[in-house]
């Protein structure tokens, strides 16, 4: 099944600092799954370091993964991670599920949903 987006939604009592031990591994998994920044390991380390500073200070991370076939964004005002593709793709579900499994293994509670973007709902309504 092709999806526009995968949403990892954290509970209301979630704090970003809870991701401190697992955030680097999650980002590494995302980069590996999307084949992003394989030839730029220093750039990847800088992105992870900048996001880790936010996590350590219990702030929502910036993300910075906007160059590959998928984007990992952290929507404003939400305790959520969104995996987003410019067009519906099968690998959106695969990558989202892999990240969800990783977070489950690190005992980070969340719910995984798909296609919860307003634009996606608008497109489905038009069909």
Description:
This protein has 127 residues and is an alpha+beta fold. It has one domain (3-126): Alpha-Beta Plaits. 42% of the residues lie in helices and 19% in strands. It has four helices and four strands, in the order E-H-H-E-E-H-E-H. It has a four-stranded antiparallel beta sheet, covered by helices on one side. Strand 2 (71-73) and strand 3 form a beta hairpin. The two termini are 17 Å apart. The relative contact order is 0.27. The model has no long low-confidence stretch (mean pLDDT 87).
Any descriptors?
127 residues; alpha+beta; Alpha-Beta Plaits; 4-stranded antiparallel sheet; 4 helices; 4 strands; 19% strand
- Measured between the Cα atoms of the first and last residue, the distance is 17 Å
Strand content bin: 15-25%
State the helicity in percent bands. 40-55%
CATH class: Alpha Beta
Care to count the β-strands? 4
Unreliable sequence segments:
none
How does the SSE layout of this entry go?
Blueprint lengths: L2 E7 L13 H12 L6 H16 L14 E3 L6 E10 H16 L5 E4 L3 H9 L1
Antiparallel strand pairs: 1-3, 1-4, 2-3
Helix pairs in contact: 1-2, 1-3
Brief rundown of the structure:
α1 packs antiparallel against α2 (41-56). It is built from 4 helices and 4 strands. It has helices at 23-34, 41-56, 90-105, 118-126, and strands spanning 3-9, 71-73, 80-89, 111-114.
């Amino acid at each position: 099944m092709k999806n526009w987006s995968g949403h990892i939604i954290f509970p209301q009592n979630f704090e970003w600092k809870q991701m401190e031990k697992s955030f680097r591994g999650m980002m590494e998994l995302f980069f590996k799954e999307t084949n992003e920044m394989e030839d730029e390991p220093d750039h990847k380390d800088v992105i992870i370091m900048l996001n880790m500073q936010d996590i350590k200070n219990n702030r929502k991370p910036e993300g910075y993964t906007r160059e590959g076939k998928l984007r990992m964004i952290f929507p404003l005002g939400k305790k959520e991670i969104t995996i987003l593709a410019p067009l519906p793709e099968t690998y959106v579900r695969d990558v989202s599920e892999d990240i969800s499994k990783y977070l489950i293994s690190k005992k980070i509670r969340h719910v995984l949903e798909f296609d919860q973007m307003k634009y996606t709902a608008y497109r489905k309504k038009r069909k």
